[in-house]
Amino acid sequence: MHVFQKNSNIFNLLSEGISEGIIVVNIDQTIVATNSSAEEMFGYEKDELIGQSLEQLIPNRFHNKHDHHVQEFINKSEKRTMGQGLELFGIKKNGEEFPLEAGLNPFELYGNTYVMALTIDITERKIKEKELSHWARIFDESLNEIYVFDTTTLLFLNVNKEAQRNLGYSLEELKKMSPLDIKPDYDLPKFRKLVKPLVDGGESKIEFETTHARRDGTLYPSEVHLQISKMGANTVFVAFILDITERKEYTQNLEKTVQERTKQLMEALAKEKELNELKTRFLSLVSHEFKTPLSSILTSVTLLGKYTETAQQDKREKHVNTIRNKVKYLDTILNDFLSVEKLESGKVNYKIEEFPLSKLINKVIYDSNFLLKSGQRINYPSNADDICVQFDEKTFELVLSNLVHNAIKYSPEDCIIDLLVKNYNETIEIQVVDKGIGIPDSDQRHIFDRYFRAKNALLTQGTGIGLNIAKQHLENLGGKLAFKSEENNGSTFSVFIPKEHKMDSE
């Protein structure tokens, strides 16, 4: 030890200019020299460690292994870093442990062997390493995709596991790629324009939505948060990516639901409006269609009381006929209303039976002759005599009567109304052809609506119910009602019924 005491000035001169701690021990592991950095590191006063055992600076749990390692090191007499691959700890005078790094250097002096330990307190480094390890773990284990890529080459420098998993590429493969390889919506000029505010410093972060392409060719929507950062001396882009497939699907489903609900609401409002219009039309109809015949009946009854003489019998008959016709018309209207109620409630009972078509046509024409205007005539179909049909006879009569009566009502005097029959393989068509006022184009799409009347028919008596009822009855029985019409050139209404009816008789 006296060797270092004799040369203490030289040792101090050499060691005090070094920031690392210097500890010199002999072969007995006794400390023979220290510098002020080592004393400060371990918390001792100047020269307080001289003559102390090295184990005083080593935590108890390492003592057994330490003796063996030191002796082996001295025997080999080679310079090396102490505890390679291991974590080293020192212990301060106050008992506090701290991580350190030590480089060992054996040397000979005046025939004695010594070991110089160069020690560094790496507490701050360990804290930083721990922090880096923590952030590295967050980076790698994040459920969002994270990309780091060069601002110049745009090549990926690091990509976390979630991005690798979602894209289907390995890290090695991605390091040979750039964002342009996974963004089909971008080429180089477009991407450079996008990131220019970041590169120029005008923005600290930009956000945008785009589409990413996986290795298997599938696409997924993504939300990108892009910013500039530093990696050592290099400037890099850091992109945080959110796969927004579920959000997009939810938004699309929500928008679809809103559209459906809006459509349903609009339909409900339209239906309510239609119902209100139907109520208004119905009240107007009832007011007009009942008031007019009732007024005629009241007038005729009043006049009947004045014609008491036998010679006035023809005048009495005229008014009796008026009353009879008006009562029959009111009865027809009431039956139409009852038919509407039955159709809506589903209480209509049909009786399917076979009957000659000629029988039904003869009855309809006979009853309709009483309604003909002056000079009007109904042409009987020439090919109806040999045809039998399977249908509800009363319903068929109601439908055909309605069409013939309309043809009479809306046709002028001195014209012909034709009934035509066409016999097809599976259906029979009966046409009612008139040369009347026809239906305006703008009204044709509403002609089967309940209570609707074409604008050129408003001055003629009618309820606007007949065609609606006829169409519903026919469709309930597998038939169909269609028409062709031209304003001022007449109309053709066609009834189609199946030759064989599958419905059971009720």
Write up this protein.
By secondary structure, the protein is α+β, with helices and mostly antiparallel strands. The chain has four domains: 2-123, PAS domain (Beta-Lactamase, 2-Layer Sandwich); 142-243, 2-Layer Sandwich (Beta-Lactamase); 251-335, Helix Hairpins (Orthogonal Bundle), CATH 1.10.287; 348-498, Heat Shock Protein 90 (2-Layer Sandwich). It is 42% helix and 24% strand. The protein has 13 helices and 18 strands. It has helices spanning 2-6, 8-15, 36-42, 63-76, 123-141, 161-167, 171-174, 188-200, 245-304, 313-345, 357-368, 393-409, 466-476, and strands at 21-26, 31-34, 80-81, 88-91, 97-109, 112-121, 145-150, 156-159, 205-213, 219-231, 234-243, 352-356, 377-379, 388-392, 416-423, 427-433, 480-485, 491-498. The strands form four sheets. Strands 1, 2, 3, 4, 5 and 6 form a six-stranded antiparallel sheet that branches. Helix 9 packs antiparallel against helix 10, helix 10 (313-345) packs across helix 13 and helix 12 (393-409) runs antiparallel to helix 13 (466-476). It is rod-shaped. It starts with a helix and ends in an 8-residue tail after the last strand.
Summarize the structure in short:
By secondary structure, the protein is α+β, with helices and mostly antiparallel strands. It has helices at 2-6, 8-15, 36-42, 63-76, 123-141, 161-167, 171-174, 188-200, 245-304, 313-345, 357-368, 393-409, 466-476; strands spanning 21-26, 31-34, 80-81, 88-91, 97-109, 112-121, 145-150, 156-159, 205-213, 219-231, 234-243, 352-356, 377-379, 388-392, 416-423, 427-433, 480-485, 491-498. The radius of gyration is 54 Å and the shape is rod-shaped.
